[in-house]
Amino acid sequence: MPATRTVRRRRRTVAAVAALPLLAVVLGACGYGSESEKDEKAAPAAKGEKIGGLDEVKIGYFANITHATALVGLQEGLIQKELGGTRIKPQVFNAGPSEIEALNAGAIDIGWIGPSPSINGFTKSKGQNLRIISGSASGGVSLVVNPEKIKSLDDLKGKRIATPQLGNTQDVALLNYLSEKGLKVDTNTGKGDVTVIRQDNKQIPASFESGSLDGAWVPEPTASKLVAGGGSVLLDEKKLWKDGKFVITNVIVSQKFLKEHPDVVEAVLRGSVKTNAWINENPDEAKAAANAKLKADSGAALPPEVIDPAWKNVDITDDPLASTLSVSSEHAVKAGLLEDPLLDGIYDLSLLNKVLKADGGPVIDDAGLGAE
Hints:
About 35% of the residues lie in helices and about 15% in strands. The chain is α/β, with parallel strands linked by helices and about 375 residues long. The chain has a six-stranded mixed sheet, with helices on both faces. Strand 6 (about 160-165), helix 6 and strand 7 (about 195-200) form a beta-alpha-beta unit. The longest helix has 20 residues, at about 260-280. It is globular and about 60 Å long.
């Protein structure tokens, strides 16, 4: 049985966008992602011997609570400690498709990311660009609505619902859910029985407050921001999944980087596993660390009425919950984003299991989708 390291905090994810040139939406204007000067100054210094002589490793993640492993691990120096003198170069993204584009371009080496863009990127490259090497989080996604305009799930027709980006995990989840409800939406334009608006996570709360949106299918902390602004949770996505478990964030690596620097990848995974354990053992301190990192990346910390419920909605785990990935790919096909998704070989959990075994943990299963 898969093993999980879980922080008790609090599904339907899916695959991807039709064309990579559309995927350039990121936080900031620095290449594919935003590299914060504040973050550079506050980041723990690289000390000691460089692993394999490598100067730096480029790591991507989102400024989301669903990426708590990256937020806390970077803020507390738990990942940098394992890398010694090999410096972390962080980049922040708004949504997965743009991070995949950066991985393909060599702008990042390793990234925390959702399952939908992982599947899409792997499929479009015919299995040549990435591997999923670990889990990170489950849950933490909700459909939040204006309770004066939408009182039940039967009231969605004719409404305007936002997602962070065309083809990102929440976008495909919403498209799939609407299809199951018998509501038709054009995948590319977002027009139909429900109008799907693709908008940056950081812009959605203002649009919601102005009344230009009736709701949003979003990850934490955006969901809790909307609730704090008068929204109501109409659907917690984990209710759509067996046992409430589904992968919302996993860790990927460039196959080229994995082949050339397995020792660096192993070090990052040690840092990830130790971070997850530390989060589990120190939930309040970990929440504060995540909030400090969000402040460093965005310029503002989250208030208690946002960070507290957001933190409770996410489960932190080393397990990538590989068995849920097949379901996610089926949703991508239904949404018209993929015709023939490729999953065989998408996982390589060998280094993760090496790290877990050394720490006395059990082996994690790849659901038969591992690289040979």
